[in-house]
Write a structure and sequence with these properties.
The protein has one domain. Strands 1-2 form a two-stranded antiparallel ribbon. The protein is built from 16 helices and 6 strands. It is about 65% helix and about 5% strand. It is a multi-pass membrane protein.
C-alpha cells in the first residue's frame, strides 16, 4: 500500500458513486479530465492565439475546441447514470446564473434587431460562453483528487514559463519566434502581435498571446502558483526548478510595458501577503524582488524608468484620455437598455468603439443583470476557495487556496483596465482556475460523497 504521507489522505477514500459501481479516486486512467485540461493549457500557451482550425472563427482555437468538448462531456455526465456526479457544487449555480444572463441578453438583442455584424458577434459570444463554462464546470466536478489538481497547476506554470521565454526572446533579440509555432493544418486568423514601440529604444511584446496586456496579466496569474511549488514541491530539485520558472515568468511581465500587468502582479502579491505568507517569506521575496529589479535595470536599461513614468504621468497618457471620452457613449447606451443591455458581443469595434473595460463592456452589452452574474461568478469562486482555505489542515493546501483567491481578485481588478474576457488566453486561464476553486471546495468538504463526486474515466 502507498505510504499515507505521499498522498493527500482524502485521495485514499473510495466511495459509492453510482448504483453497482464501486471505485477509488486513486484509480490510474489513460485519460481523465485533468489530462484534458493539461493538454488545453499546452495548446493555449504553446500555440499563437490567432492560430485556428481553418474556416472557423477565433472560437476555433484548438484549446477552445477542447473546452467545448468538456462542456459536452459535463452535460453527458449530468444526464447519464453511468457518468453520474453526486453531491452539491455551488459553482454550478453561479455558472447557471451567468448562462441565463447571457441568454436573456441574447433575446433582448434579437428583439432590438441586429445588423449582420452584431448578430455574428452575438453568436460568437454565445459559443465562447459555452466553452468558457464547460471548462469551469469540468474543472470543478471532474478532477479526481489533489494529486491531479496539482498536476494541472504544474502544467500551467510550465506553459506560462514557455510563453515567457518566447516573450523574452522577442524582447532581447527583436525576433518573433512565435511565427515558427504555426502547426501544419491550422491557419492564422489574423497577424501575430507586432512589436509596438514604447519608450526610448524599447518595444512591447506579447509572446504567444493576442495583446501585450493579455501577455502580462496571464503571467501575473501564474506567479503565485510558481511560488507555491517553489516552496512546497516534494524534492529540493523540484523546488529549485519551479523557483527558476517563477523567476522567468516574473521577469517577462514588465517587458510587455503594461500598467495592467504591473498592477496585476501587485494585486496577486498583496492577496498572498495578507492571506498566506509569514514574515520570513515576505522578507525573502522582498530581497529577491529588489535583486531582480537591479538586474533588469542593467540588462534592459530604461525599462523600469518607462514603467515608472507610465504611472506618474497617467493624465498625459492618450490611452487614458481616450477611455474617459468613451464614458458619454456608455451612459447613452446604458440609459437605453439598463437591465439586459444591447446583446452580448454586439459592441463591434469596427462599428462603434473599443471599450477597454470589461465591467463597462458587460454593463453595455448585458446590462445590470450581466454585471451581477459576472460578479457572482467571481465572488462564488472567492468564497469557495476561502472556505477550502479555512477547512485545510496543511500549510501547503492553505497556500494553494490563497493563490486561487489571488487570481480571482486579480481578474476583478484588471477587468477595470481592459476588456479581459475578450482575450481568450486570459479568459480560459481564468475559467480553469475558477473551476479549481470549486474543486478545492469539494476536496475539503466534510462529507465523503461530496469529496468523491467526479465523472468516471472515458478510457480504461
Amino acid at each position: 500500500m502507498t505510504a499515507p504521507t505521499q498522498h493527500h489522505p482524502v485521495d485514499l477514500e473510495p466511495s459509492l458513486i453510482a448504483p453497482g459501481t464501486y471505485t477509488s479516486r486513486r484509480l490510474r486512467v489513460r485519460l481523465d479530465v485533468a489530462g484534458v485540461i493539461c493538454l488545453l493549457f499546452c495548446l493555449l500557451y504553446g500555440l499563437p492565439a490567432t492560430l485556428i482550425v481553418p474556416a472557423l472563427t477565433f472560437a476555433g482555437r484548438p484549446a477552445l475546441l477542447l473546452a467545448l468538448a468538456l462542456f459536452a462531456w459535463w452535460v453527458l455526465a449530468r444526464l447519464s447514470p453511468q457518468l453520474l456526479m453526486i453531491g452539491p457544487q455551488p459553482l454550478r449555480w453561479a455558472c447557471l446564473f451567468y448562462l441565463m444572463s447571457i441568454l436573456a441578453s441574447c433575446i433582448a438583442g434579437m428583439l432590438r434587431g441586429l445588423p449582420t455584424l452584431e448578430a455574428n458577434g452575438q453568436t460568437f459570444t454565445l459559443l465562447i460562453t459555452f466553452q468558457f463554462l464547460g471548462l469551469i464546470l469540468m474543472a470543478a466536478d471532474g478532477i479526481a483528487n489533489w494529486a491531479r489538481l496539482r498536476k494541472i497547476i504544474q502544467v500551467f506554470v510550465w506553459a506560462a514559463a514557455f510563453m515567457s521565454v518566447v516573450g523574452l526572446i522577442q524582447s532581447l533579440f527583436e525576433y518573433d519566434v512565435a511565427q515558427h509555432l504555426v502547426v501544419p493544418g491550422l491557419e492564422l486568423k489574423s497577424d501575430l502581435a507586432d512589436f509596438q514601440k514604447r519608450g526610448d529604444g524599447l518595444f512591447r511584446v506579447a509572446g504567444t498571446a493576442t495583446h501585450y496586456i493579455e501577455f502580462s496579466t496571464v503571467l501575473a496569474m501564474a506567479v503565485p502558483f510558481g511560488l507555491h511549488f517553489a516552496r512546497f514541491a516534494k524534492s529540493r530539485n523540484s523546488r529549485i526548478m519551479f523557483g527558476v520558472l517563477t523567476l522567468v515568468i516574473a521577469v517577462a511581465i514588465p517587458i510587455a510595458i503594461s500598467r495592467t500587468g504591473v498592477v496585476a502582479l501587485g494585486v496577486a502579491f498583496l492577496v498572498m501577503f495578507i492571506t498566506a505568507w509569514n514574515w520570513r517569506v515576505r522578507y525573502n521575496l522582498a530581497v529577491i524582488s529588489i535583486a531582480v529589479m537591479g538586474a533588469m535595470s542593467v540588462v534592459r536599461p530604461g525599462l523600469l524608468g518607462t514603467l515608472k513614468s507610465m504611472f506618474l504621468w497617467v493624465e498625459a497618457d492618450p490611452s487614458i484620455e481616450g477611455r474617459t471620452k468613451d464614458y458619454e457613449y456608455i451612459a447613452h447606451w446604458f440609459s437605453q437598455r439598463p437591465w439586459l443591455g444591447r446583446g452580448p458581443g454586439t459592441l463591434i469595434p469596427d462599428l462603434y468603439i473599443i471599450l477597454d473595460n470589461q465591467w463597462l463592456y458587460t454593463l453595455v452589452t448585458c446590462g445590470i443583470i450581466g454585471v451581477l452574474a459576472l460578479a457572482t461568478l467571481h465572488l462564488t469562486c472567492i468564497v469557495l476557495a476561502s472556505v477550502a482555505l479555512r477547512r485545510s489542515q496543511s500549510e501547503e493546501d492553505r497556500h494553494l487556496c490563497a493563490a486561487l483567491i489571488a487570481t480571482q481578485v486579480l481578474a476583478i481588478v484588471v477587468g477595470g483596465t481592459f476588456d479581459s474576457l475578450g482575450f481568450t488566453t486570459f479568459a480560459f486561464t481564468l475559467a480553469a482556475l475558477s473551476g479549481l476553486c470549486g474543486a478545492v471546495w469539494r476536496f475539503t468538504h466534510p462529507r465523503r460523497t461530496v469529496r468523491t463526486s467526479t465523472v468516471r474515466r472515458i478510457l480504461g
